[in-house]
Amino acid sequence: MVPGKKLIFGLFALALSHAVLADPQPLDRIAVQVNDGVILESEIQNMLQQVQSDALKNKQELPSSEALRRQVIERLILTRLQMQTADRIGLHVGDLQLDETIANIAKQQNMTVQQLQAQVEADGESFSHYREQLRQDVTLGEIQRIQVQRRIQVSPQEISHLVKLIQEQGLKDVEFQIGHILIDVPENATTEQLDSARNRAETVLKRLNDGADFRTTAIAASSGPKALEGGIWDYMNINEMPTLFAEVVNGAKKGDIIGPIKSGAGFHIIKVMDARGLETQEIKEVKARHILLKPSPILSEERAKAMLQEFLKKIRSGDAKFEDLARQYSEDEGSAAKGGELGWSQTDVYVPAFKDTLDNMKVGEISEPFRSTFGWHIIELEDTRMTDATEQFNTNRAHQLIFRRKFNEELQAWLDEMRASAYIEVFEPAPIRG
């Protein structure tokens, strides 16, 4: 044999012997099938590590590994189902929209995008992973808005009734932070299944009354939508809450544990984690106008943004008036004919990207082009004012509160329906043989 070939063969044999003697490396595997898609074991492990890391930072206890894994798998299943729906309707968050979202996040934190990237990487996460996670979050928000909003109807009678209550309360209310645990029951449950679920709920309630940590218990036992967050819902006033919550927390105080309460979904246990008073004396309203361009197969994202940048140049140079361009080009049917005028309102009535832009503008300023869920905008902030709550404001606020309450209820119903009609199979890990 040629000496050079002997050396190569020897190195190959040495490498092969090391590969044979080395510990076997675990391979990724399919852990769950969701319709035509899959969830990999690595995805489950990544989320488990994230939850465990967050719990460590917050000094939060976690339930058993089995209970935590079950909750993580359920969250990934619901996420995958929503992303599949987004794919079916062609909903895609492009890089340009994602860049705008990241710029807004950085601005809200008084940072540059470069500083935000440095912070993300200092926390041990790659910025590319951060971007893709944010892309998914934005997609989930948009698909939920698209699918759930059309299921919601708010009647004039509902608004009128709530306006009366708001006026009686003098716009003073209380916000509750609610802890929620759901012990679910299957559809068309038998008496035996109902009794079993009721007994589990009573056991959980006794454990909580004996001093068990609510968040840990919720992660381990709850089938509710906030289980992985320890069952904790953000602060809501009584008019924003799902109806079940609103019916039981009125008059409750911080620390109260209520339940079990039977509903079609199962048995609920509710704890008032915190309560804080709201005092609204004056309301800041803004008067603004905008131009909206909606990307389409004919008008690309890049072209829509470039058109608005050209409009800005013409307005600032005096070659065109904002209102004339709005009448000619804006695709907002409600305001285009009025030169883009939106009238007086609180910024809370607008979608987040629009609200955030307005909140950071000065009177007379025209924004740079930015992306919202509706398309690309430029805004001119014409004026601001402080005013008492008018009847029109009360009407807008009532509509918003009822809509948000119904949105939470309909979102859960939509997720339940989607999951019930999906093909889902969970593959248990193969036992390790000694």
Description:
This protein is an alpha+beta fold and 434 residues long. Helices cover 50% and strands 18% of the residues. The protein contains 14 helices and 11 strands. The chain has helices spanning 3-21, 41-57, 65-88, 95-108, 113-122, 127-149, 156-169, 191-209, 214-221, 243-249, 301-317, 322-329, 352-359, 391-420; strands at 30-34, 37-40, 172-184, 236-237, 257-263, 266-279, 283-293, 341-345, 370-371, 376-387, 424-426. A 4-stranded antiparallel β-sheet has the order 4-3-6-5, sandwiched between helices. Strand 9 and strand 10 (376-387) form a beta hairpin. The longest helix is centred in the last third of the chain and has 30 residues, at 391-420. 23% of the residues are buried.
